[in-house]
Amino acid sequence: MSNDSITPSLTEFPNAPVSWSPQDSETIAEAEGLDLTADHWEVIQALQEYFARNDGPVKVRELQDALHERFHQIGGRRKLFQILPGGPVAQGCRLAGLQSPPGSVDLSFGSVY
């Protein structure tokens, strides 16, 4: 993963939701104070791939574990929370054009995954 700011093409996201485009992510990121880098795009691709492979309800814990496993060599959860301070699942899903799984944000506990 690198930190170069880039705008990838839609063809780099074969598992993207039909109504999603990279420009959608850039708009959301700007509103949330993020400058999208290659790291962010890699997480977006991973989320879209996970949702495409797991038809049916997605469980937040399983998704967290899958992300941690995929990115463990560069720091796992710690790195994911550094680049997505709104939560790698909650904020990542927003950027990827996906519906966050239930329980990814629990403001009563102050938790964001």
UniProtKB/TrEMBL annotation:
Entries under InterPro entries matching the protein: DsrC-like_C (IPR042072), DsrC-like_dom_sf (IPR025526), DsrC/TusE (IPR007453)
What keywords sit in the KW lines? Cytoplasm
Does Nucleotide-binding appear among the keywords? no
Q: Is-annotated flag, keyword Cytoplasm?
A: yes
Entry's Gene Ontology BP terms: tRNA wobble position uridine thiolation
Subcellular localization is given as:
Cytoplasm
The record's region (Disordered) falls at 1-24
Gene Ontology CC entries for this record: cytoplasm
Q: Which GO terms describe its molecular function?
A: sulfur carrier activity
> What protein family is recorded?
Belongs to the DsrC/TusE family.
The name this protein goes by in its record: Sulfurtransferase
